[in-house]
Amino acid sequence: MEGNLLMKRHTHAACTSIMVGKKASIDGSNYIARNEDNFVANWPKKFYVQKAVQNRHETYVSPYNKLTVELPETGYRYTTSPDANQDEGYYEEDGINEKNVGMSATESVTANEKVLAYDPLIKNGVAEDSMTTLVLPYIDSARKGVQYLGNLIAKYGSTESNGVEFFDKDDIWYMEIATGHHWVAIRIPDDSYAVAANQIGIEKIDFSDPENYMWSEGIQEFVEKNNLNPDFDGWNFRHIFGTDTKKDRHYNTPRVWYGQKMLNPSIEQNPESSNLPFLRKPEKKIAIEDIQAILASHYNETKFDPLGSGSEEDKKRYRAICLSRTMNSHILQMRDTDTGNQAVEWKGLGMPCFSAYVPFFTNANAIDESYSFVPETMNLDSAYWLYTALEFVVESHYQEFVEPNLDYQKELAQWARQKIAEVDKESQKLSGTALTDYLTDQNKIIAKHFNEATRAHLADLVTQGTELSKLTFKMDPNL
User: Fold this and answer.
1) What CA–CA distance (Å, rounded) separates 42 from 11?
2) Which residues face 68 on adjacent strands?
3) Per-residue b or e along 31-58, where b marks 16 or more CB atoms closer than 10 Å to that residue's CB
4) What is the pLDDT of residues 284-314, one digit of tens each?
5) Exposure on the CB side of residue 389, measured as CA atoms within 13 A
6) Choosing from 13, 14, 15, 343, which is the catalytic residue?
7) Residues 269 and 381 in one domain
8) Which single residue of 142, 174, 254, 341 could bond 427 by disulfide (Cβ 3.0 to 4.6 Å)?
9) Residue 184 and residue 83 share a domain
């Protein structure tokens, strides 16, 4: 049973996260974002709005590890991105609730054997499959998200080592759970960004500054009692709880290196360095397009690009950010307003290298039927399958299709900005239920536009592709 449990757990263990503070962004928004990756190329996802609940008497039982939790009687409405097949668990992954608090869970990480020896992971504890379900409907600030999840870990323990993102209009918090009961969290400074890639990243913890750091009860005593701090001075969570292995230097750190290279191009760093900083201040203000470009990247314009012209050895050297097994890329945006439409969830199903990011307003009762309709086999009425078909066609003739595909993404990115501006203007006239109903209708209009544009793009590529077959023969007219 233990072996099967580990196999299941690792099917959702390969993500890349980005957090951007409001003073580091070009529009004053807070952003949290992540590529949800699997270890299989086809793992369908849904996206819809989970309704608020009241007077509920229900016990949650995880399909994955049988964690059993009595649920609160009331819960907020929230957007959710669960697995289409929930035999292994819900894996709701990300969303924003009606209190404009967002969560993305999880960034799988690994703790070292020294700390796990004294506080092992708990088989029936809180795991990725349950986190969003058990936390997001019940929190009204990012800080309370950390506290709420921390209380669950204290009571039930953690099954995995994970990083979790929380945000609201004021704050971004990143929480790293390392062992069965111990974790820390850091408030991302407003003028900074962070990239996380399957490795414990949080560095120094200032225990005299609870406004910007949080931690599990007894963590200092745990480290001191078991002689776990390798440093002569200071208290560095990465050094104490993290790993520094050959796998890290080929699977994890290069992704952090590339994300920082895109936002701080003048800083020279080694992609295999074990000392890349967790926090950085960008060289220019970060736009939504910059975050999209990082999540859609595969070491573009370097010799390490698997689709580039480098040597076969270099092209296979590092694990890229965007992969064939990326099934749900999301960017959660909280704009610095109180208009009721400030929360936007940008959804990129399938490989974001070739797909479009679709903006949805989360103060809504629904997204669109095409995002909750996910049959087992391909059907282009399903958003998941539509974007999956597109990625397959583009990659199959990458050199011929990359430019028209980039044009398609650019045109839709421009349309999205124009549409959001249009909705913002109209939203100023509305409030309450009328605003929620309006944004619900706009979500469906947005989905329809992107779906139609994607079908048209796919049809164009398939039509062009008929001329690219190698099964052709040109007759010599002199024969």
Assistant:
1) 12
2) 61
3) bbbbbbbbeeeebbbbbbbbeeeeeeee
4) 999 999 999 999 999 999 999 999 999 999 9
5) 19
6) 15
7) no
8) 341
9) yes
CA atoms of 50 and 55, how far apart (whole Å) = 16
322 is catalytic: no
Q: Are residue 290 and residue 192 in the same domain, yes or no?
A: yes
What amino acid occupies position 37? D
Contact 353, 387 (CB under 8 A): no
- Take residue 35 and report the two structure tokens written for it: 């590529």
Over the stretch 236-266, which tens digit does the pLDDT of each residue have? Answer: 999 999 999 999 999 999 999 999 999 999 9
Residue 276 structural domain: 2-353
> Based on the domain organization, do 193 and 100 belong to the same domain?
yes
| 169 and 277 in a common domain | yes
First-residue to last-residue Cα distance in the chain:
69
Sequence-separated (6 or more) residues with CB below 8 Å from residue 68: 59, 60, 61, 62, 124
Side chain identity at residue 247, one-letter code: K
**Assigned token pair, 29:** 């928004």
Q: What is the pLDDT of residue 470?
A: 86
**In this structure, what are the phi and psi dihedrals at residue 114, rounded to the nearest 5 degrees?**
-65, -50
Collect contacts of 226-231 with beta carbons under 8 A, ≥24 apart.
226/114, 226/115, 226/118, 228/114, 228/115, 228/118
